[in-house]
Amino acid sequence: MARNGGRDRYRAASADAIAYERGLRPKQARLAQGSALRALVEAKLALCWSPEQIAGWLRRLFPGDASMQISHEAIYLSLYDPRRRQAIDRSLTQRLRSARPMRRPKIARRPTGRGIIRGMVCITDRPAEVEDHKVPGHWEGDLVMGTRPSAIATLVERTSRYTAIVALPDGIKAEQVAPHLTRSLLGIPPQLRRTLTWARGREMATRPSSPRPGCRSTSACCAVRGSAAPTRTPTGCFGSASPRARTSAR
Q1: pTM here?
Q2: Residues whose CB is less than 8 angstroms from the CB of residue 201 and which lie 6 or more positions away in sequence, other chains included
Q3: Helix axes 51-61, 72-80, angle to 10 degrees
């Protein structure tokens, strides 16, 4: 309201028209609009002044003239943004202290390891017997989330389509999911624990401990033939009941 006349002179129609014009893109760069401002900025850049120094100097030199002031970020964008190449002499980047032709962040992002499943076994490395659905003991798992914090894990046996539901009352982080899955898998007869295929979700960043030697956990990174077969009615439930909520498959 203040930028459109204040309480006394504000008019909705004119303010809407001005806001529409103000929002049009692309906009002409600030330095391309005023030759006097551009000349001052280029002169100081040629003297190896930093954009921060130039912006502060202009504020002190022209305290009441907004047309002769500019932020240091606008100067950097005029130097490095290819869409503003006509705003300023781009060769002046050599006069900056970094002298880089391209702009880089002050602190480069380093990989933190978050969201990475270490030691992941690809779905293509599963035994061939998994594909024909004849040998029992091969499971597929997924995370089903409802209204936070409601969440469950499902385990579906590929041959019988027997479905086990695992409550996750502690949360969906990897260290919170692994104990409940491990306890649930240990409740399955050993001869029916061969492989477990799971989507590449971060809840499996620390996979549950193998219930017995030879039981493998793989990650689905491509389509699985037959995995969308209808689930039969037999189901099992492990752990405490999950809060009732609307759920959606993840």
Answers
A1: 0.46
A2: 143, 250
A3: 130
